[in-house]
Amino acid sequence: MRFRNSTAVNAKGRAPAVLRAGLLAALWLGSASAGLAQHPAEVEVVFRYDRYSSLSFTGFETRLFRIFETARIPLTIGIVPFAVKDDFFNAAPQTTVPLSGEKAALLKEGIEAGILEPALHGYSHQTRPRSLGGRYTEFRGLSRDEQTRRIREGKEFLERLLNHEVRIFVPPWNVVDATTYAVLESLGFLGVSSGFDGGGGIVTDKTSLKFLPATTDLAGFYEALRSARRSPCASKVIVVLLHDYDFSEVDAKRDVMSLSAFSDLLTSFGGRSDVRAAGMAEVMNRPEHDVSLFADNKRYLITQNLIYPWLCDVFNLNSGFYLCESYLAGVGPKASWLLFAYIAAVLVACFAAAFKIGRWLFERWPWLFAVASSVTIGVLVFLAYDIQRDADMSYKGMTGLLMFFGFLSGEVLAVVFNWLARKRKFRQGPVEDWIA
Fold this sequence. Notes:
Number of strands: 11
């Protein structure tokens, strides 16, 4: 998660955002009406807003909470109790700022109105030093004693300040480990809301915690709803992850829509029988939302994330919502086989192209092999570095690695075949001349 601090808004950036929001709402309502006969089962939508702290934008958040209150839709707030003052991504020692009375009062007002649901979003949200290929994380790798201290202190601080129990944990950058789960369980947490993007922690069947991860961001909400509606799952839950930079009032460059357009979107929930908003604890507490369902969803989503999106559409690989066990049992193997076929097709196609072209080029200009192989190796190294820097493998990164590995293999084999052909021709040449 990249946190933006820009508060600039300009007319040029806002107009497209409003248009996108209007189109989103229109498509959503049209899709819901069209699909009602096919899948009348209710789709539940849970909203989660992250990185609320003394340093987040109070004016913006006041307006956002009012929108949820007006629409009577619950919102889970990921609260950072002791936010670092400067940069979350800097592991050097920094001053921390406790959640202020003003920010606590804003939360208490929403909690008392039955709209806001507090969740602990780490301790300071400051990353630990990253290893090669490692993800940003506040907790992974810390000792159990240190994790217990931070989580207990953050939980008790918020509960005193808000006069309300905090039972949900939202990991910074969605990354924890098995130790974190054990600590959360010992401290009486209900469950965890993380993500599927390679983080989320090591899944273990020894925990009794509940899991309800974020399944989409605001930009992907309509597609997630469309995907949920075409699914045969009886339980269809979409968890929408919100950040301040999703809105043009905070970041006019990265925004998805304005607060006004978002208000219209939430208002459109009213009166519908096929879509309802729900609170996170309410949904998370259900028996089916255990570690087993989270582990199965995570395996499927990581596999699906490596397949080109249009292939997922062609083969009806749904995503964007929390998939049920019965659906995963059928779609999981299909996704695995499709990924295998995709990897094989990309490798074979790139290998064959490089081999065919390489044999023709390298036979005429042998020095081109040194140039081509150097460029190919350079691109491979760059792609590997870029992937480990973000600690995230997607279909783009995997496809790039497969392509250039196929190219390199084809180039090398082309040189080998040319060398063998020359060697065979050299040995046969004198005999053929004598016979002639």
